[in-house]
């Protein structure tokens, strides 16, 4: 019994979706890069992940980034506190907008 397909099959719709979104071009370029690689990698899947940007960062890199983030957050908090203190001190010497309007 033949399986009837409408004017456009779901498979064809999906293929066009992948083509429009650039997925086919990206995958093709990564596979071409793997094909043209003179020294083939031991793990082709890792090569593909790396070139697609899906490779996870090294644990040491993650830890370094976490430390840097914590340091920068602490520095930001200190600067925010300093900024608030300086604004308060400045308000002692400058009239408020309401006081300026009265003058």
TrEMBL record:
Gene3D superfamilies: 6.10.250.1060. It comes from the Eukaryota. Keywords: Coiled coil, Nucleus. It is found in: Nucleus. Belongs to the AMY1 family. Residues 62-89 form a coiled coil. This is c-Myc-binding protein. GO terms for cellular component: nucleus. GO terms for molecular function: transcription coactivator activity. Its main location: nucleus. CDD domains: ZIP_MycBP-like. It comes from Eleginops maclovinus.
């Amino acid at each position: 019994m033949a399986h009837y397909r409408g004017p456009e099959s779901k498979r064809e719709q999906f293929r066009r979706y992948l083509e429009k979104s650039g997925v086919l071009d990206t995958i093709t370029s990564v596979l071409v890069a793997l094909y043209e690689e003179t020294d083939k990698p031991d793990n082709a899947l890792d090569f593909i992940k790396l070139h697609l940007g899906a490779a996870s960062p090294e644990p040491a890199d993650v830890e370094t980034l976490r430390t840097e983030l914590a340091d920068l957050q602490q520095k930001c908090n200190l600067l925010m506190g300093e900024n608030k203190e300086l604004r308060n001190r400045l308000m002692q010497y400058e009239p408020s907008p309401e006081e300026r309007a009265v003058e």
